[in-house]
Specification:
single chain, 233 residues, mainly alpha, two-stranded antiparallel sheet, 2 strands
């Protein structure tokens, strides 16, 4: 309630300030023709019906029911902040790969280029990824899905082969990691906590924002999980 009240006050203040400026502009520069309703940018005229604003979230103060829950959140936070850059970079590499493949017509050349990129990614990340713990590895798998909309298993299968993807998954299972794991903050409370950690890190410029390809609304997630993992909303 406090957050919504603050947001409402902020919107009213912004609206009042904007309306005052519009009234002043109408007095100083009367709008007598259609061209007066254009905004001018470096010599160009743009017709406007609304003002585009960046999306802003107002975060509630973190509260925990007990020390155990608080500890769990901050451990998850540390691990999420650690592996997110890898997921972000993986998504960027995938976009670059797909953009390049569009211009490569021959199947043989496409496979050769894909293997080259895959080898480059392995060399770029393998040393660091080997240092990840089991839980960090599982969070990374979830974040890869968040950034690409594709499971790590399907990415391996697409870039290499189904057989290799099978063995990758079997190896990961030996460490209790599923590379078929998806990311669903609307269904899984831990996934919501990961999303909350990311949004707070984006807002504080601790992480560089990369929008998820998945379709969910963070504000609605907050409302759903406001009563914790047992929320029925």
């Amino acid at each position: 309630m406090g957050r919504h009240k603050t947001l409402l006050i902020l919107l009213l203040v912004c609206s009042f300030g904007f309306s005052q400026q519009m009234e002043l502009d109408s007095i100083v520069h009367p709008k007598d023709s259609l061209t007066d309703y254009y905004v001018r940018f470096e010599g160009d005229s743009v017709l406007y019906s609304s003002i585009a604003l960046d999306e802003v979230f107002l975060f509630d103060r973190l509260t925990f029911k007990d020390r155990k829950e608080k500890l769990r959140y901050y451990i998850l936070r540390r691990k999420t902040l650690k592996v997110y850059p890898y997921a972000k970079l993986a998504a960027e590499r995938l976009v670059e790969l797909n953009d390049s493949l569009v211009h490569i017509k021959k199947r043989r050349h496409r496979k050769k280029y894909t293997r080259k990129v895959q080898k480059y990614i392995e060399e770029e990340f393998s040393a660091e990824l080997k240092k990840l713990t089991r839980t960090e590895g599982q969070i990374l798998v979830k974040l890869i899905y968040r950034q690409t909309g594709t499971t790590a298993f399907d990415l391996v299968k697409e870039l290499r082969s189904g057989w290799r993807a099978f063995w990758y998954n079997a190896t990961a299972k030996a460490f209790n990691i599923s590379i078929k794991e998806e990311f669903h903050p609307e269904r899984e409370h831990e996934d919501y906590l990961i999303e909350d950690i990311l949004q707070r890190a984006f807002a504080s410029n601790q992480l560089e924002r990369q929008k998820s390809v998945l379709d969910y609304d963070y504000a609605q997630l907050n409302n759903k999980w406001k009563d914790g993992p047992n929320s029925k909303n």
